[in-house]
Design brief:
The complex is a heterodimer of chains A (about 575) and B (about 100).
Chain A (H helix, E strand, L loop, with lengths): L1 E2 L2 E7 L2 E4 L3 H13 L5 E4 L14 E4 L9 H11 L6 H8 L2 H10 L14 E3 L2 E6 L2 H12 L2 E3 L2 E9 L2 E9 L4 E6 L2 E4 L29 H8 L4 E2 L8 E3 L7 H4 L5 E3 L15 H13 L5 E4 L5 H12 L4 H9 L8 E5 L12 E2 L12 E3 L11 H22 L7 H15 L1 H4 L6 H15 L8 E2 L1 H17 L8 H26 L10 E2 L7 H4 L1 E8 L4 E8 L8
Parallel strand pairs in A: 2-11, 3-4, 3-12, 4-8, 12-19, 20-21
Antiparallel strand pairs in A: 1-2, 5-7, 6-7, 9-10, 10-11, 13-18, 13-22, 14-17, 15-16, 16-17, 22-23
Helix pairs in contact in A: 1-5, 1-11, 2-3, 4-11, 6-16, 14-15, 14-16, 15-16
Chain B lengths: L1 E4 L14 H5 L5 E3 L5 E3 L10 H5 L5 E4 L10 E7 L2 E7 L5 E7 L1
Antiparallel strand pairs in B: 1-4, 2-3, 5-6, 6-7
Classes of the chains: A alpha/beta (about 575), B mainly beta (about 100).
Chain lengths: ~575, ~100
Amino acid sequence: MTHDGWTFEILRSDLLIIGGGAAGIAAAVRARELEPELDVLVMEKAHVKRSGCLAAGINAINAYLNPGETPLTFLAYVREDAHGLVREDLVLSLAEKLNSVTDRLAAWGLPLPRDAQGNYLPRGRRSVRVDGEGIKPLMARALEASGARVLNRVNATNFFLSAGRVRGAFGFSMREKKFYLVQAFATVCATGGAAGIYKPNNPGAASHKMWYCPFNTGAGYAMGLRAGAEMTSFEMRFIALRVKDTLSPTGTIAQGVKVEQVNALGENYQKRYRGNTTPLRLYATLQENLAGRGPCYLDTTGLDREAGEKLKEAYLHMSPGILLKWADQGVEPWERPVEICGSEPYLAGGHGLAGYWVDTGRRTTVAGLYAAGDVAGGAPKKYVSGSMAEGEIAAASAVQDMQAVSFEELPAAELARALELEAAMVLAPLTRQEGFAPRELEERLQKVMDEYAGGIGSSYRVSGPSLLVAREELAQLSADLARLKARDLHELLSAQEVIDRVLVARVLVEHLLYRQETRWPCYQERLDYPQRDDTNWLKFVNSRYHWREDRVEMLERPYWRHGEQA
Amino acid sequence: MSVRINRSKCDGCKQARETLCMLVCPGDLLFKDMDNKAAVRQVRDCWDCAACVKECPRGAIEMYLPAEIGGRGSTLTAQRQPGGVLWTLTDPRGRIKQYFVVG
């Protein structure tokens, strides 16, 4: 089969994993452990050696139960930090595995310094230090050793559905004109979250100088939506408190070495505000700026030279850019405080709540489809180790479930037809001479979201009327996606990324409209409903997209507290 | 932040169809140009993960801060060594500092 020089290829696997990051690799390795004969295939948009969030490396495992912590104390912390609303079953089930997956990373060769008692060196109550520049190559080696197959540089476009069940996925290569349909008995979605929905912090050549991985563009959310999967809590966006300009993490400073967070007057301002959760620390910083007491800083001037040099080394593990900033300014970290700011809003279930609605086994609402990591919702603060825990849980469910179903061989004609239809749709931008370049529509999306749906430019706040404008603008933008043009495979990827992000943004706007309270200042802050309302809104806002009618259906799901009857 | 290829050092990984930096870039932002050298598609799309910087065996890739966020000429290069990475930071006045990072 060919389509203007394109080759179509139908592959078989038992278990397909989309995304070779922390969650996907953990899923693949675990599945092969459970069933050594299982044919596991990982479809990866980049190359597993350095793909996704962990490309640069890490300097801490931020979800780990140090001595004295338990899954229940972890849950209590996550619940409080998420202002009372989490999927307690999900948080608990991943918490139980946080330490074993960390041990696994150590066994794979990740350098984890230990204290005199032989425990991993704590960085905070629920985190440990790692020398993790090379974490991703190390995970990739473990993946290879597991015997799973990998399709690098293949971008997934949609799930393949047959008789209401996910039976694999489509994707195209970025290195040759090749379109794939990978069949599978079970599929784990582990594609990460979504950046680039909102206008970023920096202009021009620094546009992608952002906190979250800019190459995580919501593909898994969008594919799930188009397959009719139920999603939860898109309205709880995640906004990181970061170092200004380089968007380097503040945690490296705040936890790695002790420093105060101060306003321009040198006051430790957090005390002025009630609550000290992750969203409220960002909120406090923003309020200080709005009150004229900004900018705000991490006061590194108390560091001595030795601590300052150590800080630089810690940054070289995951965010080297800040060293350039200091060098270009001609200052040392101990000479000038480090300014902080909020990032653009992202959707990432590893930090916030946004993602697939899954059961404790990480089964989505669509048969044959599982989700883990940033793309799975309901369990914030899972980070690398929690994502791996979810990958392992998803793999175990997938392996177990596929044994209970008798699968019929799909007719070759059905497969070929499905592949042709998908390719014709996805490759269409390559055939257009006139129309919109992906960048143009991407920037329009980001401008609309920034101005009407609570981006940096609107201090993250939203209101009903402005969200209705966003809804209209996005509907028009959505129609214009049919005029996207692409000149090569890389632009085709960019086109697909815009298509995915526009759908994610549309669903996000519906979520923001639906929740009529303010539960998470900055993350979800309604100017027209400024109070938190536990009586009416201590519940999940979910959604399902109906592809044929191009309609978003909103749903509500109750919150259950652990230990109480459902 | 972005990366710059030193064309006199880059050998395009010789005859390899895909250079090592192309292989690892998480954003698919590098390609081989007509002169068999690695090149950056769009500087603005670079995240600053430094995967390519650390991967290049010839030290031909350096990171810099875009002028838009205060870049004034500093560069960072990296060299993989047994047990870690040796980073070299050069400031706008040409002063050099090195850091060895275990990993």
